[in-house]
Amino acid sequence: MKIVQTTALMATIATCQGFVAPQQSAAAQTALEMTSRRDALATSFATILAISVPSAANAIDACPKGSKNCLRQTWTPPSSTSAADAASQLRDVLNAYPQEGQEDGKVDGGGYTIISDSDGSFKLEYRSSGKGFFAKSFNAGKPFIDDLVIEPNGSSFEFRSASRLGDSDFGVNGKRLSYIGGLLKDKGWTGVGL
């Protein structure tokens, strides 16, 4: 999405009517005239792609430095597990998470929804019950929503669980990943960043 927005901005800038360039020398002005808007846009687009496209190792955004509401982990299935079997095991574990949440609904008491499930990549949305003090006081009684994103990275899977709002999640993302991690450990997976 960032690439599309930035590209649209660059296209608008490149085709802008009425732009007045600062005064330049005759040689600089000639060089500027020789560059077409199409060439300028192509160069800008190539630069944006080179900077913006994540590498496979960083397909998931890093958590902000010092974040108290975002966790990132890496999980690896046993070496004899095929990619399809690993995705299937991961799907089974995600579906085994209790829809009523943990700790009598204090963690993810509003359930969860699998937003996407494709080629070993998963996106889930977890909701608080909306009944707690903070939900009532600061979120009009609506549930807080957290996102869990899982992407394959070679033979491993990158996990990122983050709250959409606030500065702290009171340990909810950690409890969620610990529960999922426990189920993965039972299947022989190993984790990093726990």
Protein architecture, described:
With 194 residues, this protein is α+β, with helices and mostly antiparallel strands. Helices cover 38% and strands 21% of the residues. It has 6 helices and 6 strands. The protein has a 6-stranded antiparallel β-sheet, with helices on one face. Helix 1 runs antiparallel to helix 3. The N terminus is likely disordered.
Quickly give the structural class: alpha+beta
| Mean residue pLDDT | 79
Radius of gyration: 23 Å
> What fraction of residues sit in β-strands?
15-25%
Number of helices: 6
What is the tally of beta strands? 6
Poorly predicted sequence stretches spanning 5 or more consecutive residues: 1-22, 45-58
What proportion of the residues is helical, as a percent range? 25-40%
Instruction: Summarize the main sheet.
Output: 6 strands, antiparallel
The shape, in one word, is globular
The succession of helices and strands, N to C, reads HHHEHEEHEEHE
User: Biggest sheet, strands in spatial order?
Assistant: 2-3-4-5-1-6
Distance between the termini: 30 Å
Summed up, what is this model?
It contains six helices and six strands; from the N terminus they run αααβαββαββαβ. The chain is an alpha+beta fold. The chain has a six-stranded antiparallel sheet with strand order 2-3-4-5-1-6, covered by helices on one side.
Write the layout of secondary structure elements.
Layout: H1 2-14, H2 26-34, H3 37-52, E1 70-76, H4 83-96, E2 112-118, E3 121-127, H5 133-138, E4 145-153, E5 156-163, H6 172-186, E6 190-192
Antiparallel strand pairs: 1-5, 1-6, 2-3, 3-4, 4-5
Helix pairs in contact: 1-3
